[in-house]
């Protein structure tokens, strides 16, 4: 499926999921949406029948709070029936507010930040040592980079020359309470990772063509893609507003958001 | 015990398609393993948290991954990684922690592994072993090899006296009876067993003969209800090189819930929380905390006298 079509489908689904469930993190879900859409487009060939194959591309959503986006992408790709999304964050459901590996297509149960990258380095190292093809992609939030395991793994990945490991940071500059730079400043982020001997590329994280190009270039070392994004992207009243890290759209907001995206997606 | 583990893994690594990951520890222990299996050895550096996550990822493609470190660095430092990445994911990862209890006693409190059992016992899916000697270790390793479950091995530092005959096929599905006696019960787990055996010898000279059980598995808990049929006249003593809460004593009492067991007088010897700042070698600290053979014998004698 084309990434833009997938993105348009996911956007509607996640607004509905967060509205119906009253669950949080819609801002993060919209921020990471284009990254997920590109990774689950046909270019990367991640399918229900091959996602566990050691020779396939593997995706780990380390910023687990954006799971609605991944669940929507997986449902749209046929990993499970789309109707299951109605159970999102409902009592007794396995589709909770953070990834659960019991759901087809979910590699790792995350939600505590800083777990995805170490796990991915293990998969990447195993693939490399056994000569298996396929890349390992890790989607992280920028606030998540605060975790010590990020830097432990950054050392480990370059030391073991994991040229099959790509981290995409959803760089929206907002974390839980305020901006990343007023919390624990990350800049200059590119220089930090370059000094760890990583390749770094900074791109517009909502531009599918640029994302696709950055994700498919041959790497000579582990790679960090700083995908510059807007939290709440695509819904005017959610963009760059910290409160949409926590709030879910009520009926009125839900309808307003759907109208907005209907207009933009047909432009 | 660590050397026995290293020898075993050197022998079995190919068959299990295993990888050994170390947190930059094991000097003098894994040289032969590295020589025989250079491609199966990974030094993750001094980075225990990412090491456990990395090992989990490795295990999705390789066979069982063994992760080696010492004391609390292999447990408390990376507890959430063990909980989420290893145990909840139900992966074939075995964490091997050397230096149980006061093994590294003179190195100070940071090196005293005395709260790990309580923390690890609480984690679903994780099988927690605490072998007392080489025979128990070998029996545990055989079980680990045949299992798909995540596990944790709490080992002594080395040089533990044998408390069993050489037998690499012990039935560790239930507590192991070392002595059968008429004067009550002593339970222990791990390398503190040598002190209990010492106490047994002292007690025997006084004509007191407890039944003694070693408990090489701490989680899932054994069911002690069939074993403990105390009618009010038997003494029960639990000895552990660990803080009092959440470990073997808790495991025994929890397993009795719902069973018609009439507990008699029982006692518990464990680490004294009031003396945790003290340091010294293992022998010194065991005496200080009254979990050495003389203290154990004295406590049991007093327990028997009260009955």
Explain this structure.
The complex is a heterodimer of chains A (267) and B (307). By secondary structure, chain A is α/β, with parallel strands linked by helices. Chain A is built from nine helices and five strands, in the order H-H-E-H-H-E-H-E-H-H-E-H-E-H. Chain A has helices at 3-21, 26-39, 67-76, 116-130, 148-159, 180-183, 189-195, 208-216, 251-266; strands at residues 58-61, 136-141, 165-171, 199-204, 223-228. In chain A, helix 1 crosses helix 3 (67-76) and helix 2 packs across helix 3 (67-76). Chain A is globular. Chain A starts with a helix and ends with a helix. Chain B has ten helices and twelve strands. In chain B, strands 2-1-3-4-6-5-10 form a seven-stranded mixed β-sheet, sandwiched between helices. In chain B, strands 7-9-8-11-12 form a five-stranded mixed β-sheet. Chain B has 307 residues and is of the alpha/beta class. The model of chain B has no long low-confidence stretch (mean pLDDT 95). Chains A and B meet through helix 4 and helix 5 of A and helix 3 and helix 4 of B.
